[in-house]
Amino acid sequence: MADTLQSRSCTQHVSCPLCRGLFADPVALECGHNFCCSCITGLWEREARNSCPECGREFPQRKLTVNRRLANLAERARKVRLEAGARGAKPWCAEHQEAVKLFCETDLTLICYTCRESRAHKSHSFSPLNEAVETFKEQLGPSLQSLTEKRQLFAETELKQIRHISEVKAQATCLQTHIISQFAEMHRLLTEKEQRLLRELRREEERLLDTMGRNLREIQENLNSIQKEIVEIQQQLEQQDEVAFLKVETARKRRSKEECSQLRLVSDQLCLGQFNSPLQYTVWREMLDSIHPAPASLTLDLDTANPWLLVSEDRTSVRLGDKEQKVPDTPQRFDRGAFVLGSVGFTSGRHYWQVEVANKRWWGVGLASESAPRKGEIDPTPESGFWTVWLFPRQGWVARTAPSLTPLGLDAGPRKVGVLLDYGAGQVSFYNADNMSHVYTYTHPFTGRLYPFFCPGPNDDGSNSAPLSICGARGQ
């Protein structure tokens, strides 16, 4: 309170009579009255005469004397007000150096009474500070409610996002474990096959070398015997005693006949066909039996085939015929869509099959639920119980999603399409079976039985007459 009174007392003596604010560059007239330099010169310009606004005295010339003492006092008054404001006193107008008591609703700013009379706020709307505060508080109520609701929405979204992040991390960890285990199993199978072949090779090598070693020793023994006999013959030829010669020669001949053995060369070789076969192909054929899921040997269900479809005798390929077949109209049969299902359905597990699509420009493959519609016009989307990918002449490769198709962005189509159903995970994925690159995945909480789905598409004047064929169990 003392600071406020001190501030007001100071400002009473250092305020300009014209602008009512603290002096700014104060000047004194010849009559002794003081004004802001800009205030008095502006007044004289407007009135076109040099007179004192306080006493009315006129001056023949504009003679203004700078009042430095008054300028210092005004500066000290400003500092006092600033210090008082910093200690919690009421705000002051920096321009007019008086208390701020009004709120300009037009400019949304705090002003003093002098500001209200200025040209800057002419024709503006004003209200007392307390009324302005109440108005803003009333407006803040709905805003607070809206922000509270928005905060709740963002908090719930944050929790969902955190859960999704955790789910993705858990899925990534699970898939990492799956990949590592799958390759570990393949490494184990390959290592076992490698070690088995190496053991067989060592046994065959040892068998051949043992036989050849024994024969080599026999050959060497015969060589030694022959060499010894040569020496004996040479000595015998040098014998001069005829009786002794004949006795020795007769004995040598009897011994030579008894010891003579047949010369034999063992030239057996390793069986190159057994160990030099195309090992990669051989191992692949063996590993295929242990792959899960291995390419399934599927057949087509004739009872579901549209009457215009022609199914091969082995029920592994289908194409559109030239005329409608005379077949019974069973509840399972598609009567409008040129579709056919596989003969085996799945309710659990992981299953994989491949479909030959080379030389075709229009087709569809995938899955259909047992409860999917069979009659009338059908849009084979997930909402109808179909999870499929298609090739259309103009759209190219697409997933049959709703409400619109999803382009798959494949520049060149594969010769074979792989379909992998993971029933428990609720996923059906499609692959380019030529290189096993991923094409598209549907995610859905599957229930009931699911069947492989096939559509060979229209013949298109013979350009799409090739059949849609299921590849054999070994991908042939």
Strand content: 15-25%
List low-confidence stretches: 1-10
| Percent in helix | 25-40%
Series of secondary-structure elements, N-terminal to C-terminal: HEEHEHEEHEHHHHEEEEEEEEEEEEE
Biggest sheet, strands in spatial order? 7-8-19-10-15-16-17
The global form is elongated
* Radius of gyration over C-alpha positions, nearest whole angstrom: 54 Å
Number of strands: 19
Total count of helical runs of at least 4 residues: 8
Distance between the termini: 100 Å
| Major sheet attributes | 7 strands, antiparallel
Features:
476 residues; alpha+beta; seven-stranded antiparallel β-sheet; six-stranded antiparallel β-sheet; 8 helices; 39% helix; disordered N terminus
Secondary structure layout:
Layout: H1 2-13, E1 26-28, E2 34-36, H2 37-47, E3 65-66, H3 68-86, E4 102-104, E5 109-111, H4 113-117, E6 126-128, H5 129-237, H6 242-259, H7 272-275, H8 279-288, E7 309-311, E8 317-320, E9 340-341, E10 350-356, E11 363-369, E12 386-392, E13 396-399, E14 406-407, E15 416-422, E16 427-432, E17 437-443, E18 450-455, E19 468-470
Antiparallel strand pairs: 1-2, 1-3, 4-5, 4-6, 7-8, 8-19, 9-18, 10-15, 10-19, 11-12, 11-18, 12-13, 13-14, 15-16, 16-17
Helix pairs in contact: 1-3
